[in-house]
Amino acid sequence: MLVYSLKFTYLKSLFTLMLFSLIACDNNKEISIPIAVPIKNQQPIVVAGENLQVYAGELVTLYGKKSKDPDGQIAGYLWQQTSGNPVVINTLNESDINFVAPNLSKITTLKFRLTVIDNQGSTASNFIDITITPASGNIYPFAHTQQNFSAVSGSTIALSGLNSYDSDGEIQQYLWQQLSGTNVSILSPSSKVTSFIAPEVAAIELLIFSLKVTDNTDASAQDKLTVTILPKPSATSAEIILPVSSKGLHNANNLSTSILNTSVRLTADDQITPKDNELVTFALPLAQGVVKNTSELNVSINGIEQAIFAKPGLHWHWQDKSIRSVTIQLQNVDMRHGDIILSITNFGRNTRNDLTESAHKNGWATSGEIKAYMPYPRIFALHDTSYLSHTGLIPPYLPAPAIDDNFEKYQLAQFNRWSGSLNYNKSSGANWLFDRSSAYFKVYMTTGRVEFLKEAFLSKQFYFSKVRNDDSSPKKVGGRGCWLWKGVACADGKYIAPQQAKLAWALVGDNSQWDNSLIIDMALQSDLGWNQYASRDAYDKENEGFTERGAGMAGLAEIAAYEMTGSNKILDHLTQRIASLADMQQTEKNWDLANNWVPKSGGFEHSYNVHEGNYNEKSAPLNNANDRAFSPWMSENISDFLWQSYWITKDKKIPEVLRMLGNAVEEHGFTSRYIGNNQYQKKSAFGQAKQTHTKSCNKTAKETDLVYFASKWADDKTITSNNFWPYYSDTHNIETVLVLATAYYFEPDTQKQLKLASRIDKLIEGWAHVQCADVFSNVYRLFNWQHRSNSIRTWQWVKENAIYNLIPTQATKIIKENSQPPVKQSAFQQLTKVFASTNSSRSKLSFSDVTEKAIHYGPIAHQPFWIGMPDVNNDGCLDLFVGTHNDNAGSSQMWLHETLNGHCKNTFSYYTNREGKYSQKSSGRITSRYIFSNITGKKSGLPDFFGSDADGGNSVIYPLLGSIAVGTPPVYKNEITGCRGGKNRCTALDINGDGKIELIASAANSQLRRRIYDPITNNTIIPKLQNNITPGFKSSSYLVADIDGDSWPDIVSGEAYGYWRYNPVLRDFDPFNYAFTSTKQDFIRSKRRPTSNMQISLDYDNDGDMDVLFGSGQWGPADKDKEFYLSLQRNNGDGTFTNVTEKAGGGSWTDGSLRNTTYWTTYAGIYPGDLDNDGYTDFMTMSQSYKNSPRFFKNNGDGTFTTIKNLIKNGGAGVDVFRPWGNIADWNNDGFLDIAILSNGIGDVKGLRLYKNNTNENHWLKLRARGVNQNTDGYHTKFIIKDSVSKQILATRYLGNYNLTDARFIAHSGLGDATLIDLVVEFPHNGPVYNYSKLSVNMELVAFRDGCLLKAWSPGKGWPTESNRQQCTMPD
Hints:
Layout: E1 3-5, H1 13-23, E2 52-55, E3 59-63, E4 74-83, E5 90-91, E6 96-100, E7 108-118, E8 123-133, E9 149-152, E10 156-160, E11 171-180, E12 193-197, E13 205-215, E14 220-230, E15 261-268, E16 278-285, E17 298-301, E18 304-305, E19 309-312, E20 325-333, E21 340-345, E22 364-366, E23 375-377, E24 379-383, H2 385-389, H3 406-417, H4 436-447, H5 450-465, H6 499-507, H7 516-525, H8 548-565, H9 568-586, H10 590-594, E25 606-607, H11 608-612, E26 628-629, H12 635-649, H13 654-668, E27 672-676, E28 679-682, H14 684-687, H15 701-704, H16 716-719, H17 733-746, H18 750-767, H19 781-787, H20 791-801, H21 810-818, H22 827-830, H23 832-842, E29 847-849, H24 851-854, E30 864-868, E31 880-884, E32 893-900, E33 903-911, H25 913-916, E34 928-933, E35 944-948, E36 956-958, E37 976-977, E38 984-989, E39 998-1003, E40 1009-1013, E41 1020-1022, E42 1039-1041, E43 1050-1053, E44 1058-1060, E45 1062-1063, E46 1068-1069, H26 1079-1082, E47 1095-1098, E48 1107-1112, E49 1125-1131, E50 1137-1139, H27 1141-1145, E51 1166-1169, E52 1178-1181, E53 1191-1195, ...
Parallel strand pairs: 2-8, 9-14, 58-66
Antiparallel strand pairs: 1-4, 3-6, 4-7, 5-6, 7-8, 10-12, 11-13, 13-14, 15-21, 15-24, 16-20, 17-18, 17-21, 19-20, 22-23, 25-26, 27-28, 29-57, 30-31, 31-32, 32-33, 34-35, 35-36, 36-37, 38-39, 39-40, 40-41, 42-43, 43-44, 45-46, 47-48, 48-49, 49-50, 51-52, 52-53, 53-54, 55-56, 56-57, 58-63, 59-60, ...
Helix pairs in contact: 4-5, 4-19, 7-8, 8-9, 8-12, 9-13, 12-13, 12-17, 13-17, 17-18, 17-20
């Protein structure tokens, strides 16, 4: 294999031709130059350098620049690798290259040849050896840009680092820099893919760029790229020559906002002679939302736009209906000089040059006899494997790494030794079982190898050539597409495989052998065959016929057909099949109970004898435990179809089915059991047999001896018989990886994850190596079943992206050993320098006391205990409310925001309790923590309010009168019981997504902890914790936030040092996760726990994940009670947290420095918000006495905070003020957060002070949302705001009643100096996700679930509950 890199300066055409001739030379032949060389010319002198010895993982640079020519100059350089494991080479300049030394198992030598050519055509070569010693240290990342190319002035140029990689970790930082040429503005220098506008030039100019990549251990590598800028051609009067990116030719509003930037390599088939006029047709899969119109596509060669034909293929019809694949054709392509790289973007093209489609067969060759003379493309288009893995064409996976991958070697050896030599004409039907073509397509997608793509296409051609495309017998009514090769006919669904059609269409662009009706009928027929047991209806007979492969292959046919056609009938069948399987797996049937076959194993238990055809359903004996079993490796067919279906339908039954199935296979499907620490022990029944039924190549035979049938109920004699334990099961090990991997993805239990992961790694170690590639026994379908589900590549993705990620990866193990947490690369780290230069001028923070100007009159509230700025009448103007410690004394106070002509006046008028009945004298009461929200589910969306009674009995809800209209003063009905249990604390949420607001309660007077219930009916949604030893029990209140980013609310208990993740499949919580135990060290001085209501969620580092801040204060007179402590826990994005307190607080948060003149209190609060609008969330704290002013903790944007005291000086408190509450909100609607504080007041305003933020030059955005059904406050809606230019996250906000002290139904976000933003709105509970691009700033927006983003709305007009008749901005 020849691996080379060549870059050279502009020379005369003579020498350019000579270099191309040199490249085309065979590696094993003399290099000949096709011109006469002058006799007197002296050969150049080649200096390749001294031989090198390096360690694996080092970045190796080879220099050729010292080469010289005695009588002229060096015209070009050619580096070739001539022996050793192939490496990927980066060309640094004309003479120098580098590569990463591969991580091999033994000392290895790589040999390279440097050939130079001088300006008269003479060549010379020299060699250099690189000896590589294995090493366990870090392997350098590999920076890789595009090939050098040319572009026209004014065009949009894409810079891509997509092919960069890190083989033993991950790339955490990209940095693009311009090194020379006319200065240009790189759109996003820290992005993997970015762009710039080519400058206007009068003559050819070279722009040189560098890409630096840095991995997770701070090792870095660099690559360079030269872009040649060509002057614009002069326009004639007859025709205007448009630039490369000619967006004016179509509606710019239809352009996708997601960047497409990939490359495709055209390569000629090795059985043809390439021509100068090749017809090339191929397809490009597309991620959702990237391309909505084919006119967006631009195909270029070396920066020169190509005329193309393009048409849509697949669509994302179940999502945003964008294009999922596009078929592209080029004509008259000269392939005589070798491969050609196509650059493809969505920057638009000159559509006036578009081609008319030519028949694909005009670009096809014909295969030989053993491939049944099937036609196939003369020119293949090879995709970038990393790009393919992000398109969503198949479920998530990792592509094969660039170096030393045993599994790819295994697949290639299988192909070369036996699979690729299948004689189609002499093949039997069994050779095509389990979808040969799809298996090869997926192996191609992971490796990028042309031999796999060709075999996949030929297999598809042959398969569809032998499909009967009519209603001829044998068939059953409702289906067609029966497989007729070698008499197999419609035996069962395992021969019906439309998935290959989807892949062929999306990767090669050919759909000539089918239409939608055939694909639909194939899916129907797969469930109708005369040897196909029904698997969509209820499993209601003990010995009902069932096979895992039949149910699974029919399901695969259905999901592929639905993806291609959007048929609702097929979707209905798919949904029925999933429901039937869940019922069969999980419901304890009458015969299970009668025979005590409970609890069920998690496998699809059925009759072995009916499965094998020994009996039929009626004749098989009943109540036979030795007949009750399931097939572990056949279960892969079900796992495959369910895993694919999950990513399309998000059916809520699928996760639990996959989780249970994988655990059942782990528990019952092998002859050994896991005993911990990656060790296994033979089960007693199999231990007595003293043998393994595995192939000799299997390196982990004891740990991976797989059975054919597994049973929880059969006796030892049965499970060790040849019927249950044959010798051929071992060949199914690779496919079984998928069953275990998909279970791991959904498994919340750490110990079960450990067992699954260990078994998977043993299976891969045992089989995925070239020695096992010899296993064949003339069973060609072995390749099909091993690779159709992409099992090992799926596992490689799953173990890094599982929902729970409870098991440390190798990277985290290294971190623990070094006691240094990883630096989580995020937006604030990348932009620190930018903000540092602007912070001082733009981010000033100060407040003015405007109490007397804004409030006309304010009587004292006896023992005030809470102050807030809710919008009590939904007019859009924030009001004021002071709640007292005993609201049943009738002394709470309310002020309404005055309006004029639909606008907020920013003044408040006192609204008496006599008018509003908001502080009723009755038996129930609220002592603190008032929350205004639509608890009773009114269509108007107007809020009621409720609170807690932490000192007594049940607290109350104040329901609003139903006759009250939006914008009118509120009047409340008689209070009703709300927060229950005695000395209770409650928080509101919608836990299950039904649109009804529930309460989560913790009561000190009883054992009631973490009960979730309907506050109106008192019906329990999730029962209380069982007893006081249950993990998480020690919780007097909770924090509600989406911790794991799955769109469902989770529950944090700081006092118990952990959280519960809500599991929507189980409709209950997963086991308590002790994620915050490191918090103990932050409060060690006082030996206190986090204070119940001093726990907040905020995205302090702008990475899109909700971090958690805990505070600890104390009610008491002791000296240490004057101290306050903070603990900041950074969300790692995988369900785990890193304690970053010391960095954030510089030590002052934990050493007692946060000290007051009087003690802190459990009743004080922490209030998060971006107070200076610089784009980073700050927070404010309150304490016990007004001798202590509020404290501000300013987020510096680099992971640290600065403590600011005395920013507000709030005078001494009188005895009637009682407690020091405060709150923040933008009450004057200028986009900056203001402050209200309980105080001794001033003038005629008693008991509170109002402070106005003096603002600065920074920008802002405010967001509200309307949720589903009665969730009119938009609980749990998440907003992610990004800079439209840099694409960096500026803010992440989450709506809801976070904790006892904080409810946010207006998401306020500071934006710094950003002037255009992109917005992502994520509605909760797997609701819709909408993207909006290039929105203006300094606005207040309202998001609706139908995608409407309400515009032309301002506070004071009233907040609409529906989008009907509103002016909307719709999503991209």
